[in-house]
Amino acid sequence: MTEPLTESIPAREVATEPVFLRDRQGHSMRGCFVTGTDTEIGKTSISAALLHWCTQQGWRSAGLKPVAAGVDGRGVNEDVRALRDASSLLLSHAEVGPLQFRAACAPQIAAALEGHTIDSQTLVDHAQALADRADVLVVEGVGGFCVPLGPDFDTADLAQALHLPVVLVVGLRLGCINHALLTAEAIRARGLTLAGWVANTLDPGMEHISGNLDTLRHEFMRRYQAPCLGLVPRLAEPSPAAVAMYLDAEALRSVFAL
Ligand SMILES: Nc1ncnc2c1ncn2[C@@H]1O[C@H](COP(=O)(O)OP(=O)(O)OP(=O)(O)O)[C@@H](O)[C@H]1O
Ligand SMILES: [Mg+2]
Q1: CA distances (Å), 147 to each of 66, 85, 104, 142, in order?
Q2: Which of 71, 97, 141, 143 could bridge to 39 as Cys pair (CB 3.0-4.6 Å)?
């Protein structure tokens, strides 16, 4: 008889308890959790643009990259640097990026290389501490939605624990419709609200871009009533202000309004 190669994974027995982040008045926190169809598809660019837009609304905005892998010569992760620069609150790199690992690889592996185990509760407490100081919190996920952060804990668990509405960045390329809808299914399976999606142009030469966008609009609306929050072209200088020009202000108000 053939033995299974791996032990079967037990069903998750207890869902991570959601934390409703509170502002100083005790109201639910304005904010969002930004995820993407993949790594390197524009999550940081869109998160920074969202922070810029929130600052323009007169809100004290704070970016958070709970787990980051890969640092520059000064020991700072580039996403952390970008989100810190785009936040209106004056934050330290450690406040925006509480866990920055040196190796630019999958976060669980990067953490293990430093003998570190990522603790969910520590990240949630850190998010609440930032929420206490800000009007709006923009949290950038790690890679795609289901990237493991530990043996029994992944990015989706973190999003679920923070219980913020989710913004999905769709990197426009062949195959993105399937990746987008699979990610949306995973978001719904965690009981989270897909507040909307942003189309980010990875390859301006992609064929049938408008057909892909029509399908994405239709499917996101039909399945999730999730609006398109913006269509960002390939920009020569994708600064937060430049990217924010392509976000839909009216749709964003409904993401952030309580
Ligand atoms: N619309 C755009 N126009 C031009 N360049 C872009 C655009 N969107 C993203 N980029 C560039 O593409 C690269 C990847 O984008 P970004 O860092 O935002 O991706 P990410 O999804 O956050 O990646 P990671 O998974 O590493 O966090 C960056 O160099 C960024 O400046
Ligand atoms: Mg990023």
Answers
A1: 13, 26, 14, 7
A2: 143
Closest C-alpha to 50, from 38, 35, 40: 35
The residue type at 87: S
Percent of the chain with pLDDT over 90: 84
Q: 117 CB less than 6 Å from ligand 1?
A: no
Strand ranges inside the chain, DSSP E: 30-36, 61-64, 67-69, 99-101, 136-140, 148-150, 153-154, 166-172, 194-201, 228-232
Q: Count the alpha carbons within 13 Å of 248 in the hemisphere toward its beta carbon.
A: 14
Q: 209 C-alpha to center of ligand 2: Å?
A: 23
Helix (H) or strand (E) holding 219: helix 209-224
Q: What is the pLDDT of residues 194-236, one digit of tens each?
A: 999 999 999 989 999 999 999 999 999 999 999 999 999 999 9
pTM over 0.90: yes
